[in-house]
Design a protein that fits this description.
InterPro entries: ATAP, ATAP_core_dom, FeS_cluster_insertion_CS, HesB-like_dom_sf. GO terms for molecular function: 2 iron, 2 sulfur cluster binding; 4 iron, 4 sulfur cluster binding; iron ion binding. It comes from Paracoccus subflavus. By secondary structure, this protein is mostly beta strands. The chain has a single domain (about 5-100), classed as HesB-like domain (Hypothetical Protein Aq_1857, Chain: A, Sandwich). About 10% of the residues lie in helices and about 40% in strands. The protein has one helix at about 10-20, and strands at about 5, 25-35, 40-45, 55, 60-65, 75-80, 85-90, 95-100, 105. Strand 2 (about 25-35) and strand 3 form a beta hairpin. The radius of gyration is 13 Å and the shape is globular. The chain starts with 5 loop residues before the first strand and ends with a strand. The mean pLDDT is about 85.
C-alpha cells in the first residue's frame, strides 16, 4: 500500500488564513497531464467529492482525487513564502525530474 500524501502544519495554517476571508473550501491537489515535464500540479480551492481522500488539520481540509493519488503517494504538501512568491509546494518522491518553477514533473 502506498503512503498517502502528508500536509504540513504551515500549509494548513495558510489555508486557514485564506478561508478566513470567505467561503470555506478545501484545497484540491490534483495531477494532470501537461506542463513542460509531462505532468503538472493543479492546486485550487474546490469542493470535496465523495471519492476524494480527505486530509484534515487545523480545521481545514486538503482533498486528493483517486486518479491523482498514486502520483502523490508519499508526497508532502507545504506552503512556501519566498522572495519569488508565496505558494503551495509539493515535495514528491515519485517525481524523477521537475521544472524550475516546481509545478511540472515527470515520473
Amino acid at each position: 500500500m502506498n503512503l498517502p500524501p502528508k500536509v504540513t502544519e504551515r500549509a494548513f495554517a495558510r489555508l486557514a488564513e485564506i478561508n478566513e476571508t470567505g467561503d470555506v473550501r478545501p484545497l484540491r491537489v490534483a495531477v494532470a497531464g501537461g506542463g513542460c515535464s509531462g505532468f503538472q500540479y493543479d492546486i485550487r480551492l474546490d469542493r470535496a467529492e465523495a471519492d476524494d481522500l480527505v486530509l484534515e488539520g487545523a480545521g481545514q481540509k486538503v482533498v486528493v482525487d483517486p486518479v491523482s493519488l498514486p502520483y502523490l503517494a508519499g508526497a508532502t504538501i507545504d506552503f512556501a513564502d519566498e522572495l519569488i512568491g508565496a505558494r503551495f509546494v509539493i515535495e514528491n518522491p515519485n517525481a524523477s525530474s521537475s521544472c524550475g518553477c516546481g509545478t511540472s514533473f515527470s515520473i
